[in-house]
Structures are given as structure tokens and as C-alpha cells.
Amino acid sequence: MTTGLDMRTDTLVYQALFLDLRHGLVDHARDRYQLTHGQQSADRLRGVLGAELARAEELVASSGETSVVQRGRQDLFDFLDISMFHKLVEQGKVPLAPSTGSVVLDKARTRTILTLIKELKDVRDPTAHPGQEPMSVRDAMRVIDSALRLCERLELAESLIASLEQVHAELVLRAAEPPIPNNLAPFDDTLPEPETIVTDFVGRDSELQVLRAWLRSPDRPRWLLVGEGGKGKTSLAYRFAVEVRDARPDGLAGAFWISAKRRRFVAGDIQALRSPDFVDLESAVNRLLVNYGFSELLSEDLPAKQDVLLELLDTLPVLIILDDLDSVQTEDEDVVEFFSLKVAMTASKVLMTSRRDFAGMGSTKTVVAGLDEEAALEFVRTRLAMYGLEEDVPDKSWARKAAIACEGSPLYIEELIRLSKFLGPVSALKSWADTQGDTVREYALRREQEMLTDLAQEVLAVCSLSPTPLTIPALSTVANRVEHSIVAAIDELRRMHLVLSGPEEGDPTFHVNQNLALLVKRGLNETDEKKFRNALQAFQGLGFDDAHNHKVRSFERQAKLLLRAKRPDEARRTIEQGLTECTEDPTLLALLGRSFAEMQPKRGVDAVKAWKRASDLRFGEPWMYQSWATLEQSQRQWASMAFAAEEGLRNCRADDVRLIFAAGLAHSQNAQYLHRSLQTQLARKAVGEADRHLDRAIRLGTANNEHPYYLSKAHRASVLNSSVFGATRKTERRIINWLKAMPDDVYAREEASRRAPKYPSLGELLTQLDEGRSATPQ
């Protein structure tokens, strides 16, 4: 058993793997071979690993016992090291893992075992490579966790598992300090576009707090959001899923959204939807296998597919959102059993929404009622402001009456406020109360359409039929009208609050809310509907159609799995195959660049070429630009690093603190290079750009509680930037600001101490901080 838990982290991990785990694997392989081949075991082993074993024997003969094997050798099996087990498993001459009885599941388990061995065999001996960067505690925990998973799948000795669990427990204690966040790794998700779920989100703070606590809870794998239709279950689940996607919590590889919704409540009617994500257990399993990139398994029988999916959900855990689960027919409720019982035994989390309760959920559910009074009133006020009706409301009590009449339902509140634009707030509320909103919405829509020009009605129809927001050029293509006419029609529709505009950044997009869209589609005649649907399909063919997107997602998921398994060359081949079928796809180009960057040696030129093309195609995920900037930084290409970061700010969010910091650091380093090259004018311009970015990074990072690691780096870069043309009073002020903002930052204190002889105020401030610290009761 490994001892000495007070040793260095990387040494602790190395000894756990290459002493305990290796010995356990050797004993296991010997037992399996002897069971199968008896006295011929050694010959069979040499038949699989002849060259590798010969080299190991030569090495031992020439240099004596290595640090890897520190016990007496019994036979040829004791020459095995962890790297050789990859080939043993891959060749499969003697199965090292017990059979499950399913060929498909056995293959999936073998792939998992190979992935785990690949990760473990890449761990290097810290005593043999003293110059390498020490392994982080988080990485060490991941490695030991992989070792434990390997032990479980091979059914190795309980004593070995106990030894590794002891090491893992020690690493958990060492992880008390918060890690430096790493958002560079892609986080997979299949969340729908926000416009298809909710146009605004108000309140629900307590419900979100409950869901956040649930996600952190290790013993509650499932949660149910239950309540009447129209009360916001789907919106709440979506808001939470977006939070998870943006936070990328440790232990989750993605967030998969699948909906059984077959109909929506619109204008007092139940409207059928054409294609739910799943209708029974098999379609749900198929959808998740496709999400994982295993569409080639869809033709297998259901039990085999279930086994593979459960293996994936345990090996690569995700958050699954099962929306509108009550839409599943009673005879197909085995899907509920599968997700609430079998999936709950994996490392994944399951969040379900339903109008009816399910047995056995107990305390693992939230009953979603209408918005509480405060949130409902806030929602009413925001909608009144959006439609310009604040002055038309007779008194303050109207908002309260509207919230009560709509039972706090966001869906009904929005419809009532829109009706008030045309009927007046008093008449709309009275009609709503009299008819419960049944016919009023259809009547108002007909009134609105009578006031529109023919072109505006066509544009409204196109926006209603489109599953995603459309730009002016897109609408021009689909409606076959010149752009200035489309602009006039959009202005007409916006004045009547029939279309909503998209985000402020980039080209403006336009869409209608889902309830209005269903009303408009119901009123279209068959000829117009067919004409506009065909036009939309043609437009998507000019870009990427559904078949293209389906292929891309399959290749994307396979590539991400390979990248997580640290197999970048295989990922590259997979992506390049995808690009032959789905040329110029920005998602695949971004992942291609990542695979080039992760190769050994790196293929930096190829990575940058792929990332530049993805950026030209408006790829919108920050991880790519962060990876690109980091690569340029490692090669000291400061101008290129600034370009990469600023491309990310252009295509992603302009307030991404880490991209802003990367841009500032790059300009500052470039300024130093230009100054040394006597290009003074350009250097001063670069200093100005660096100041602009770094000041903004510090301001936004402080306001957004950015991780101290990045704030410290931003302050330090700002100080160094002020020193490009020699130390100045600005340098002094920035160090003072740094110390005051982060008085316990060791780098701030070192910088202040180094410059204190020139600026005595820094020494005085350090003394004050130290005295304040010593005066604080311990």
C-alpha cells in the first residue's frame, strides 16, 4: 500500500499508479492469462507484447532494477508496465474485463478502459523529470479518480481500491484552496435558442437557490419541477440550465436538453407540435446517444443501447433536462423509470419538468406555482414599459389585478399586456376575466393584421415560421424583397410590438414570441405557408441545412470525447473527415484548431489558420479565442495575441473579462517590444491600448467578482505597462491601488517591496497593512 501521504502531490500520484495500481494490474493479467492458457501464459503474453517485453528485459539487464518495479520478479508478467496494458486490452487476446453478456456493451466498456489507461500511462515520474511543472491537486484528483474507475471496470482487488481511495481522500483535503478556473475546455450543450423558451425571466430566486444546492448535492441525482401549465416550469429549467452551461461546474461534461412537449397552450387552445425530441424510452435513449456522438449505435437493440448510454452517463457525466415529461403516454412511462432509477445510479444529474407528479420523488421536487406577488408585479411593469402603456393604466391597482387575473403566469401576463395595447388596459382586463383569455387574443391579432401592409404581413409570417431569429438580409432572401423594403416592414411591425429585436451586438435579428408565432401560423392559408416554408429551407441551404447540422453535431461530440481523452491526432482525423462532409463549418474549424494545439509537438501554424477561419465565420464561443491567445502568448507573438483576444471580443461578449485582460496584456508586451525596437510612436499607441483594456478588465473583474488570480495578473500587467517608458508616478499610483484592492496578494506585496526604495509611500502602505493585520484578533 502507498504510504507517505505527506509527500509532493505528483510524487504521491506517481507512486499510487506505478506501484500500487501497476502491481494490481500485473497480478490481474497473470491470473486471467493463467486461467485461459495455463503453463503457456508467458508464451501467449510474449506473442502480444514481444517487442515491448524484449526492450524491457534489455533495459533491466543493462541498468538493473528500475524504480518502476521494486519487488522480486516471479515471471515474465512482472516486466509489464502500465503503458503495455493499453495494447493488451486493445488486442483482446485474453479479455481482462469480465464480460457483460452484450457485445455492444463489451465494446463500449473496452473503449472506456482504453481511454482510462491512456490517461494514466501519460503521467510522468517527477523524480525522473524534475523540471516539469508540478501536477495540480485537481489534475491529481482526476487521475486517481480515473484509476479507481479502471479498478472498478476490471474488478481488481478491494485492497487496491481501498489504497487508491485513501490517496483520493488525501487529495480532497489538499484541494481546500479554490482552484484557478479553467474555461478553455469546451462544455457540450444542446440547449435550445432562448427565443424558443422565454423572452424574459423575472424572479424565481428561491427556486434557483434550491436547484443550485441540488446540483452540488452528491446524493440527490434527480429533481422534478412540477406544476400547472403556463406557470414557468420550462423557463425555470432553462434559466438553470443556462447557469450550469455558463458556470461549467467540475464533474459535468455538458448539459443535454430533450423535450417531450407535443403541444403548447396558445390563445385558449392546445396546439400540436410536429417533432418532440422523444416520445418513449427508445427515442429518448437515441437522442442522448446522438448527443454523445454515438449515432452509429441507433440500429442496435434497446437493451444494448441503454447499457452503452448508462456507461457514457457515468464516464462522462452531464446534466440532463427532461422537459414536459408528462407528455409521454401512459404506456410509455418506462422512460420515467429509466431516468429516475437507472440513470440516477450514474454520475449524471437529471432535472425533469412535468404537470403531474411522479411516485417516489418525495423531497426531490419543487412545486412551481405562478410568480409571487412581487415578481408578478415586476413582470407586469416591465411589459407595460415595453408596450408604452405606463400612462394608460388607470391606477396602481391595475397591475395587481392583472397579476391576479393571470394567476401569476408569465405566459398569460404577456398576452394580456399585449392585448391592452389595442383594447385598452381596462377593456382588456375585463375581456380576459370574462372569457379567461380564450378568444380575445385571436380577435386582437386579426385587428392588428388588418392594420398591416401586405409586405409587413409577409414578414410577420416568415418570422413566425422560422425556428431562429432572422437578420434583414435573411428576411430579404426568404421574402424575395429588397432590403430597404424589409427595413420599412420591420419598422411597421416594431411600432405595433409584433416583432422583437435580438441582441444589440452584431447584426440585428428579429423574431416573434412563440405564442404569437403559433397564432400567426394557424391563420396562414396552405399556399402561403408552403411558399414561405420552402423559401426558409432554401435560405438554410445557402448556409447550413438540418442535415448539415446533424452531421456536425455527431462529429463534434466524437471529437470532444477524443480531446477529453487526450487523443488529439484521432480527434483531428475525425474533424477533418467531418469537414469533408460539412465544409467551412465554424464549430468544426474551432475544434480542428484545438486538436492541432494539443498535439505534441504543437502544430501552432495550423491551429491559428483554423481558428482564424472559424473567427471569420463568426464562431461565438470564448474558449477558442482564449486558447488562440494563449498559443500566441507562448510563442511571444504579442500582436497576434492581441488580435486573437479582440476577435473574441468582437464575436463573443464584449465584456468577457479574460479576453479583455488577454488583449491588454498582449498590447502591453507589444509596447515593450516596440519600445526596444525604437518604434516610439507605435509603442505609445500600444501602451494606450493596453491601458484601455487593462483598466476595463480590472473594473469589470472587480464588479463581477472575477477570480483573484486573474485580477492579480491584470493589476500586475497594468503596473508593468506604466513602466514601459520608465517608472513614473502612475506606476506608484497603480501599485497603491493594487495593494488597497488586494492587500493579501503576494505579488502586489513583492512589487511594492521592490519599488519601495524609489517610492517611500509604498513602504509606508505596506507597514500600515501589516500593522492592521497584526492588530486584527486571531
Walk me through the topology.
Elements lengths: L8 H29 L3 H23 L18 H10 L11 H19 L15 H18 L3 H17 L13 E2 L15 H12 L5 E5 L6 H15 L6 E6 L3 E4 L2 E4 L8 H12 L9 H14 L3 E5 L10 H9 L6 E6 L10 E3 L5 H14 L10 H9 L4 H14 L1 H11 L4 H11 L3 H12 L4 E2 H8 L3 H13 L4 E2 L7 E3 L2 H10 L2 H17 L3 H19 L3 H14 L4 H12 L6 H13 L5 H13 L3 H14 L5 H20 L3 H24 L4 H15 L6 H13 L4 H10 L4 H16 L3
Parallel strand pairs: 1-3, 2-7, 2-8, 3-6, 6-7
Antiparallel strand pairs: 4-5, 9-11, 10-11
Describe the fold and architecture.
With 778 residues, this protein is mainly alpha-helical. It is built from 33 helices and eleven strands. The protein has a six-stranded parallel β-sheet with strand order 1-3-6-7-2-8, with helices on both faces. A three-stranded antiparallel β-sheet has the order 9-11-10. It has a two-stranded antiparallel sheet with strand order 4-5. The longest helix is centred in the first third of the chain and has 29 residues, at 9-37. The relative contact order is 0.05. Residues 63-71, 127-131, 177-185 and 265-272 have low confidence and may be disordered.
